[in-house]
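Tokens for chain A. Residues wanted.
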């Protein structure tokens, strides 16, 4: 835990504990960046940041990638306004890039049920990318209802609600540099 993490904990008393410290996140992202640089050394991939949650991860991950690449952004939402993800996604903001014959890496903050990413991949496959892979910082594996192959994963986490590093609770706390668990 860094001094910063400690300071945030004092300022946000409703955070019960830190699940993954900012140091651990950054160390793991450097490893992921190396791995991705190896896989894509002969091509120029497009990193697609799934808004909003993945923005810190995209920024840190791409700065650890040592091959030429492009970035683009996409926003999706679940069709029903309920709390449970249905996986039927609606594109709120589409890509600017044409991904046909391109190597695409979907950058996600967390894979929970897996329904969102599964549905999104189906939507993007229709555009005939050369390859379509997923880089997720967090994999909440026990919550998975849809089996989705994840290519690059930062951390597997238990079935708990987490905040920080892009992940929100009612649109807040995305700024925290670590992954934390809120008090019940
Ligand atoms: P899925 O379709 O169930 O995989 O939904 C994944 C989406 O739910 C993520 O992109 C997050 O926006 C949100 N989500 C899932 N678990 C958490 C959590 O623990 N904290 C914050 N958001 C979460
Ligand atoms: Mg999200």
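Reply:
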């Amino acid at each position: 835990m860094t001094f910063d993490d400690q300071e945030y904990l004092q300022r946000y008393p409703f955070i019960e504990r830190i699940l993954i410290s900012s140091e651990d996140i950054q160390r793991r992202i450097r490893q992921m960046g190396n791995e991705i640089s190896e896989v894509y050394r002969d091509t120029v991939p497009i990193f697609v940041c799934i808004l909003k949650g993945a923005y810190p991860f995209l920024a840190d991950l791409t700065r650890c990638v040592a091959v030429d690449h492009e970035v683009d952004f996409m926003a999706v939402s679940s069709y029903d306004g309920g709390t449970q993800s249905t996986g039927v996604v609606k594109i709120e903001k589409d890509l600017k890039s044409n991904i046909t014959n391109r190597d695409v890496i979907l950058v996600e903050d967390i894979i929970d049920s897996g329904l969102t990413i599964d549905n999104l991949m189906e939507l993007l496959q229709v555009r005939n990318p050369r390859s379509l892979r997923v880089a997720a910082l967090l994999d909440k594996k026990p919550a998975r209802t849809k089996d989705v192959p994840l290519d690059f994963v930062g951390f597997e986490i238990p079935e708990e609600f987490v905040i920080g590093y892009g992940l929100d609770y009612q649109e807040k706390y995305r700024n925290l540099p670590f992954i934390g668990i809120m008090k019940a």
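DSSP finds four helices and nine strands in the chain. The mean pLDDT is 94.
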